[in-house]
Structures are given as C-alpha cells and as structure tokens.
Amino acid sequence: MKITITTILLFFSLSMFAQVIIDPPNPKVKVDPEMNYPLFIPFNDNGTWGWADTLGNILIEPRYQSAWFFVTATFGKNNVHFSPIETAAGRNVFLAEKGLAVPESYNMLNHHLGIVETKDETQKFYYIIQDSLKKIGVYEAANQELVVKPVYDTLNRYALMEDVVLLKQNKDLHYDHFTSADAKIQTSKIIQVDNIEIKDDSKGSTMCCSTVVKFADGSLKELYNGKLKPFEKFDSLTYKNTAFGHVAMDDERPRSYRKKTAEEKPDKLLRTFSYEQYGELSKKYGFTNLHLWRNGNKLGVVNESDEVILPFIYDDIVFTENNTQAQLYKDGKQGRKIFFTHHPTIAAKYDHLEFIKNLRVKPGWGFGVFRIKKGDQMGFVGENGVEFFRLD
After folding, report:
1. Parallel, antiparallel, or unpaired: how do β-strands 41-45 and 389-390 relate?
2. DSSP string spanning 118-152?
3. pTM value?
4. How many whole angstroms separate alpha carbon 106 and alpha carbon 142?
C-alpha cells in the first residue's frame, strides 16, 4: 500500500527528559526510541541548530544551519518523526532514530517524494536530491540507496497525487518518467511541460491553474486528478504560462484591542477584562478580573483587589490569545505575560516576540513556545522563560 503525505511543515513528563547527547555523524544514527521527539524544541547555538528539551537541556547537538519542530506521521502501526533542516549543502530532513534522510552532501529539492509501505509493513522514503554540480536524482532513505543517479538537469513533478516526476538531461529531447510506486525510471514521449494560468476573459478573473504536457507528436494533455486527459482550449479563456510557487504567510502579529488617541490621559482605566467564565481556574492564578491602567506615561495591570499583576513600566500592553496573554512593549523591546501560569513574565528584552507553537503534553496540558529575534538571529523561548539559544 502506498501512502503519501505533504510536509512543509509537535509532552509527556519532564522527568523523562534525561540529558542525552546525540551527535549524528552520518544518515544512520541510532537514537533512543523512548525519546519523545514531538516535544523537542529547536536550539540555536550561535547560528548552528540542534534540539533541546523544555528545560533547555541539549538532546541533539547543534550542527545544522537550521532546524524546526518534529512532525509525526503514522503509517500502519508505525509512527515516523521527522524535522525539516538545512545543512551546508541545502535542505534535508532529520529522521528520528535514523539521522539525516539523505547524505549531507545532497540538497533535498522536496521534503519527500513519496512513502511506500511494503508487505512487511516497513516503509521506503523517496526524496528528490541535487548534488554539488546541480544535477538531480532520487534517493531512498530507509535503505540509504541512490535509486536514480544525479545526472538530470531539469525536474518537473507533474502529478502530485501519483508521485510522478519527470526528469530530463539537457542533451535529451524527451523526459524520463519516475514513480515511487515501482521505483523505476523509464523514457516517456513527453517533450515539454508547462504550468498554465487560465483566465476568464468575460469576467477578468483567474479561474484556475493547470499543468499541460506536450508529446513528441504535438498532442497536448492536461493533468486532472493526478491523471492526464486531452487538453482543450476555449476561445473565451486566456492561457498564460506561469510558475507555481509557495505563498508566504505573514508572521502572526497580536492585534490591539484599542487605538491610541491624542485624548488619552494619565491615570486612566483603559479596559477591564472579565474571566468569570473560567471559574476556579482564574482564581487559582489570583484574579477574576484584570484592569488595564495608565499611570503617567506607563501601563500596567491590576486585579479586582488592586494587586499588581504587571507593574507600571510598559509603553504598551496588548491583550491577545483570547485575553489569556498580553504582549508587552518596553523601550523598543517585546515580552509576554501568560496569565494562566505560575511561570514568571517573559521579560520585554527581545527585538520581536511571537507565539509560534503549543506543544501537547497531554489532553488539556500544553507547553507554549515563542519565536524571538535578537539582532539578526532567531531563537525560541518557552512559556517557562527558558531560552533555547546561545547568542554570544
């Protein structure tokens, strides 16, 4: 059975995080199978990346140019944990209990081409790779086998549903055809592949995008539901060659609940937030209502008993995450207060701070992770205030 997944693309008790140092020298590295990879947090050591536990203890030594959180995929009875990373050669994937998916000398052109489950319930992982000469091939990670040597100059993955790849050398007229289902490379009759943007001239709007292939006899076929069908043009539509790309999403930014105005005055109650719906939970953390006050030129937060929750030292305070947190601004730096925790306030000392991920410990219990920026370096900070970076 063949199963495909798309990447791009994470607690159990902290007592289980013993400090285990792992320094994978090659793609086949044995890692403790009891380790809970979805809880690993990327750790930046002055520009090289590894992973740490929630207390900041290094679990996998920093050696990569970038790393991310682990993703978990289930195939049959097996879970596969992997993280996209970058090496000096380019993109790669770190597979739990194995190490690098492809040799470090290759650049991975996609996170994976396809995952094929065999009769004995083992998996094969196919990746499109590129060598130092920019030649393209296919590598199978489970058996560490180069199934298609990197000799090709052009790549076009034209059937995502079927994991079909077209590869061509500059000297050849035709594309060669590879599928992960049978792991075979065959010569096709396709000589050209175009990505087409289709517009409705009568409405002036883009209808869709399509992939069209041209055969040696001049005939055209269009990709439809992972298969090729005859391609028909209509007089009312305009067809334009274009390249498909990834849409870059803006970083999440906290949205202010109010607008600053020139009429704002010192010693003013700006807003009251009620947490009665949380019942005993909010009382556990010392409040049922929070009041945002301006005192002089600074802002702070007190509870219903006028006990200070946030001191009056901030230039701005923006409640976010359904008012369970507040983004803090002070002297051009940013921090975060999480109201439903006994952890201390994350000090406003970062050039930028944003919530990035809630790691699941167990039902009803998560561990929040924030992405920060200091100068030109990026790192992560946990809700417990632990910094997952060393930036000398």
Report:
1. parallel
2. -TTS-EEEEEEEE-TT--EEEEETTTTEEEEEEEE
3. 0.73
4. 16
